[in-house]
Amino acid sequence: MSSRSANYEYVVSRVRHRRASLFDEDDYRKLLGMGLGGIARYMEESPYQAEINDLGARYSGVQLIEYALNQNLAREFDDLLRFSEGRLYEFVARYLRKFDAWNLKTVLRGHYSGATDEEIRENLIDAGELDPEFLDELIAAADIEAAVERIEDTMFGDNIEAAFEEYEDSGLLMPLENAIDRAYYEGLFYEAKKETGPMELYQEFLQAEIDFRNVLNDLRIARSGADIDPADYFIEGGRLFSRSEIGTLVSDPDQLIDHIRDSRYEDDLESAIDALQADSDISVFERAIDEALLSYSDRLSHVYPLSVCPVLAYILAKEREVDNIRAIAHGKETGLSRATIESELVML
Questions:
Q1: pLDDT per residue over 180-201, tens digit each?
Q2: Which residue has the higher pLDDT, 22 or 205?
Q3: CATH number for the 97-187 domain, one of 1.20.950, 2.60.120, 3.30.70, 1.20.1690?
Q4: Are 300 and 313 within 8 A, CB to CB?
Q5: How many helices and strands in the chain, by DSSP H and E?
Q6: Are 284 and 276 in contact (CB under 8 A)?
Q7: pTM score, two decimals?
Q8: Range 193-307: architecture per CATH
């Protein structure tokens, strides 16, 4: 780890300034009333200006918006790494490996669905540590098996190699996607649990994210009816479940919901649980989970403001902004109603 001291005060100040520039509910209401051209013009008058201007001569419509969002996200997080020093840099760099996980899953989903190379590239986010050339090799791979063979050379290798046989048996992409998530989160938490003192809040932040990820995985398994052992999909590091009890909980969705409601996240997840019980569509619960994690991360960032927590909370908030704008643009392109698009947005 770097011997340089962490510059928390400087980076947190920069992050809070950028957080104040994120789109708010009023911005989203305006975007909901626009067409794709109007959305691009609105973004041109925002922190996305550089990307819209750079890409506008080559792309238009949803493609322009998609590329601009992804490039802006990569630039923002490159800036975070450039600002950060010492231990803070290490924390942020390790956390941003989540985009390596995102990109690997995006490539595998593309191969699985028969997407074109360009369609896969459109959804990649250049904010992790994997080289673009490596990702191009994965995109050019003949099939999923060939892509997995290349991924085996990365930090995700052991997990994904073990999951490939299950993928072949089931024909489902879930084993491979979960293997990538487990490699990311368990590796991240292994490093985080070494921290002591105020930095234990970093552990708490990651434990909450792992817990919420486990909740989603378990509910998906419970709702799928598939013959899947939930213990194989369990991510170590959280506090909400143990591996030994997860099978019993998943076999009884009502008991699983009661377990979540009676947990330390009761207040954070109350609206998410209410949404799940009121609507069988698990995507409603997923959005409520995202809102709960945003709220939880904000609360931690105020408990100890000069720590990595405000930086990680900003990363989550910036991700949600990009997801919201993307949802609006794609909803407009496919002709969804305003109410339907609005229901897909995640906001504090």
A1: 999 999 888 887 777 666 567 7
A2: 22
A3: 1.20.1690
A4: yes
A5: 19, 0
A6: yes
A7: 0.89
A8: Up-down Bundle (1.20)
